[in-house]
Design goal:
The chain is of the alpha+beta class and 371 residues long. The protein contains 14 helices and 6 strands. The strands form 2 sheets. The protein has a 4-stranded antiparallel sheet with strand order 1-2-3-4. A two-stranded antiparallel sheet has the order 5-6. The C terminus is likely disordered.
């Protein structure tokens, strides 16, 4: 049975996917600012301005101003993302005039905000299977999820997709392909059940068992991912900030874990984020592709065995009766054989109905092979 999850646990993730970033507000020198998280595309651009020698104060100051400028979403209620490349240099110069102490405070807050977004990556894999995720996918799949048409914010299409958006998009498309494949396979089993009911019944039971196993594994993964997400960081002394009940009934304690990063630590973190190692996005996609490949191989083997069965070979003989047929007598003989098969099927159905009325177990309805 599907265990429903409190939808509030997905709020931050949905903001990150369907808006493209998380935000935080601040008042600086009597001016209202709205800051946002940076995605890996923006981090790569900022890294190109990263000083070679971080001990040089001027270079450190320029890097810090660039990081802050690229993190600004609104100033005094005005969106600065729209045509940002034209104005970014002027914005950086303006930020450079802000006292260094205030800049350090902004960096500290932005570091926490970006760390917060990095914790959302593992949630995407389980969120993609949620009913509300599938519903949202239905109305955003025709246009890029980061386009202003979907986000409602001018300029988001120029930011590129963040890792969570890319992962959600890839998993949703793989699920679409699987649904089409499952639908076609169900139709094939329905047709086959008319000729080999007992054999198809065994195949269908295997499919149901596999589907239930996958559902159980997803539920276990959801509980594990949500527990780790809500209990992220090292526990500190003192009471928890909040508690949350997981789908399996356990209570998760959310612990405080705020830690201020220096500009040097932040630069190092950005550099490591752009290395060639696989990240959560790559791991999630590869895991789903491997799972689908294994499942498709099993289904292909099952279909191959079924198509090579004696019953299916007789069906193929009838289909080929008009040309190089293996049924002696050509098309007329094949049509006569098909009518006889249908008559036996109808007779078997009538017998089954009588058995049901008498409280007996009906047969599978498979017609006997004819020589």
């Amino acid at each position: 049975m599907y265990k429903r999850t409190d939808d509030t646990v997905w709020e931050e993730l949905e903001n990150y996917i369907f808006q493209g970033f998380l935000i935080t507000r601040a008042t600086i020198l009597n001016q209202e600012f709205v800051f946002k998280t940076l995605n890996h595309h923006e981090i790569r651009t900022i890294r190109q301005t990263q000083p070679i020698n971080m001990t040089d104060e001027k270079q450190k100051s320029d890097f810090r101003a660039s990081f802050i400028a690229n993190s600004i979403y609104m100033v005094a209620g005005e969106n600065v993302l729209y045509e940002r490349p034209k104005h970014i240099r002027r914005l950086i110069r303006t930020i450079s005039k802000i006292p260094a102490k205030i800049q350090d405070s902004i960096i500290e807050k932005l570091s926490y905000l970006n760390e917060k977004s990095s914790r959302l990556h593992p949630l995407v894999e389980v969120y993609a299977y949620e009913p509300k995720s599938r519903f949202k996918w239905m109305y955003v799949q025709d246009s890029p999820v980061h386009s202003s048409q979907n986000t409602g914010i001018h300029g988001t299409e120029n930011l590129g997709m963040n890792y969570c958006q890319q992962t959600w998009l890839a998993i949703s498309r793989m699920m679409d392909k699987r649904e089409v494949y499952d639908h076609e396979w169900s139709n094939a089993k329905f047709i086959g059940s008319c000729f080999a009911g007992k054999g198809i019944r065994a195949i269908d039971e295997k499919d149901k068992s596999r589907t239930e196993k996958e559902r159980t594994e997803r539920e276990e993964l959801k509980a594990k991912v949500l527990y780790e997400y809500l209990n992220r960081g090292t526990a500190k002394e003192g009471p928890a900030l909040d508690t949350y009940r997981l789908p399996d009934g356990r209570t998760a304690k959310v612990e405080s874990r705020f830690k201020a990063d220096t500009v040097e630590e932040l630069a190092k973190e950005l550099e490591s984020a752009l290395n060639e190692e696989k990240d959560q996005h790559d791991i999630a996609i590869e895991k789903h592709i491997a799972s689908m490949n294994i499942r498709n191989q099993e289904l292909e083997k099952t279909k191959h065995d079924w198509l090579k069965s004696p019953v299916m070979e007789e069906m193929q003989d009838m289909i080929d009766a008009g040309g190089g047929s293996r049924v002696i007598g050509g098309r007329d003989k094949a049509e006569e054989y098909l009518k006889r098969m249908r008559a036996m099927r109808q007779e078997q159905m009538e017998k089954n109905q009588l058995k049901l009325e008498a409280g007996q177990e009906p047969s599978d309805g498979s017609p006997p092979n004819e020589e």
